[in-house]
Amino acid sequence: MHAFRDDALGDHDAVGLARAIRRGEVGAAEAARDAAARVRAVEARLHAVQVHLDVPAHGFGSVGAFAGVPTFVKDNTDYQGLPTGHGSAAFAPRAARRHAPFTRQFLSTGVTVLGKTRLPEFGFSPTTEYEDAEPVRNPWHTGHSAGGSSGGSAALVAAGAVPIAHANDGGGSIRIPAAACGLVGLKPTRGRVVANAQGRRLPIDLVTDGVVSRSVRDSAAFLAAAEKHWRNPKLPPVGLVEGPAERRLRIGLLLDSPNGVRSDAATRAAVTETAQRLERLGHSVAPVEVALDPRFTQDFLAYWGLLSFLIGATGRTFGADFDRRRMDGLSRGLREAYLRDWRRTPDVVRRLKRTREAYAAAFRGLDLVLSPVLAHTTPPIGHLNPAVPYATLIERILAYVAFTPVNNVVGTPSISVPATGTTADGLPVGVMFSGRPGAERTLLELAFELEADQPFRRLQDV
Fold it and tell me: How many CB atoms lie within 10 A of CB 435?
């Protein structure tokens, strides 16, 4: 289901809508009003929104690349005056007293915020589902997951309610919902955008903020606009990427997870077809091996458990009524598994930090690596629900999320773009390109080239 119609938003992406607003063809207030109407039209089926404002809390954006473009912020990021719930039933959220640093950077692009989108509890799950609440549903097929943890944002953008929305990624949470919903999802290099305070205090800061969008140029324009607010002097500038590059690339091909998870037939076909397109476009593609420590998957899971433990131990910072017993089955299971073997934490962190050596070795002689985003196509609602017994749920998650976490551990950029084909029941399939630290420009240039070669399938055309 979708909300595309003949109104102020039309079928504009964010760049196109911002241009129409600048030219006076539509007004920012009109765009916000029509976006709010679109949200209402789909929300009863998609359940993507945590907080919805018909009137923006801080007025209409008037300056920046996306001046006046309506959008949403993910509900794990503070927006002054709105509650931050983190997708959890363990506490009653309270209104944030100030914007998070990234919120200020996002607002500097000129967007008009209409509310906050739903996520699974504390962003731990690759699907946006709950034990005792409606799941966020995929607009391409409402019986299937919209991905996670930025599932609410992805569902709204794919359905046409807004052209772009905030997302963040601590293990795939931009790229997974982008793949599930047929969107572009760029996870920037660690430090490319302003970091949150919590992440800076952790041994490894896994989370990077960004957006999900329907076009490559929207993701490129966001990054360029964000850079005007703040740019990390330790990274090469990206600037505004506006199309493909002339340079032909050396691209490694990875069909199965380095730790042995084999991708399913539809996923392999999508990645293989993309590799063939790249060769037709003049790039060289050859198989690559990424020699990760065999313990990487279990180490990442242990680190995820550490995060759940820390949340449970410090939960009263979210609210005085925080009760870790009300955390969902996935959060509780991660915490309990961690506590059984917490003494391994220093070794786990040390091995995870060494992952950058294996990653760098894989890139010798290469510019990018092409792989699946996920090991199998988008599952039905319920397959990854946090009420599933923990041992079964973790087995299913590890069989699904087998490619994305490496970039979070190493801190490298990675982008999900829609493949040309779909699953047998019409769901999108994403493919992923990963690069060295600071390689966002190369990733965006290649994504532009694939989009120009064969435009991405649009939900409104199905």
Answer: 23
Give the pLDDT confidence score for residue 450 in this predicted structure. 98
Domain map (residue ranges) of the chain: 14-461
Residues noted as catalytic: 74, 149, 173
- What are the backbone dihedrals phi and psi of residue 41, each rounded to the nearest 5 degrees, phi first? -70, -30
Superfamily, domain 14-461 = Amidase signature (AS) domain (3.90.1300.10)
Note the pLDDT tens digit of each residue in 11-54. 999 999 999 999 999 999 999 999 999 999 999 999 999 999 98
CA gap 170, 40 in Å, rounded:
30
| 203-258 tens-digit pLDDT | 999 999 999 999 999 999 999 999 999 999 999 999 999 999 999 999 999 999 99
- Residues contacting 56, CB < 8 A, separation 6+: 32, 112, 113, 114
Edge-to-edge, what's the strand order for the sheet holding 428-434? 164-169, 208-213, 184-187, 414-422, 428-434, 368-372, 250-253, 284-287
The amino acid at residue 125 is S
Say if residue 60's pLDDT is above 90: no
What is the dihedral angle through the alpha carbons of 140, 143, 147, 151, rounded to the nearest 10 degrees? Answer: 80
User: What is the rounded CA–CA span in Å between residue 345 and residue 286?
Assistant: 37
**Could you tell me if 127 and 379 are in contact, meaning their C-beta atoms sit under 8 angstroms apart?**
yes
Q: What is the pTM of this model?
A: 0.98
